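Dear support,

I submitted the protein below through the web form. The confirmation email said the job was done, but the results page showed an empty box. After a refresh the structure appeared. I'm attaching both so you can tell me whether what I see now is the final result or a partial one.
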Amino acid sequence: MQEIAIYIYETADEVLLSLADSFVDMAQKAIDEKSEFTVALSGGSSPKKLYELLASSEFSSQVDWNKVYFFFGDERYVPADDLESNALMAKKALFEPLRIPAENIFTVDTTLPPAEAAAKYAEVIQTRFQSDKARFDLILLGLGDDAHTASLFPNTSVLAEEAATVKEVFLPEKNVYRITLTAPLINQAHQVAFLVYGESKAEAVHIVLEEENNFEKYPAQLIDPIDGEMQWFLDEAAAARLETEAEDDE
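What the results page shows now:
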């Protein structure tokens, strides 16, 4: 396992500010080095607050957004105009306020059948990276109370997928499909950042970071970048059960 950097802050607002600063730093570095920054976004209420912060006057001028290319770590299998859509949330919170060019945004085509939508998105990613290995500069992830991340849910077949690709996932208890990057594709990233806050996440954070691996039961344990870095941004409530000492965030 690669070394993990864990940053713990008193409040959720401080967590969001720190991750926004980190996002800007990573974007600036990537753009300086190779004229672009590729990021896979996460869905949910916590990332939405991050995106709104990045689009605010405090951060919006710090990045050349025309050189940032956006993908999604997972997507709900719903129409593009459905309020559950991760892409629609990001559009309203981030893309529209920052006027991100349409050609910089790569979304899942949910008009296709689930398996076809996943295969097409894998093709889109591979074509965009134009190499044998698609390596995102940054993948943003959240953590569910059940220790799922992206749409890697407990006891689903995608957890055994060894290919760095995109797969459809059926969740029988919800009777819905999701489209997700597989763990091997996530693990190719240069940077992986978990954004987790709130006391309801404390048990899952402890299990993923400190308990013995049980990938079927705790899928987020699968995330272990091969040749990249992993950072966890936590508030004190989410970190309450950790024995691990946090890093100093300079």
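Response: this is the final, complete result; the empty box was a page-load delay. The longest strand covers residues 229-235.
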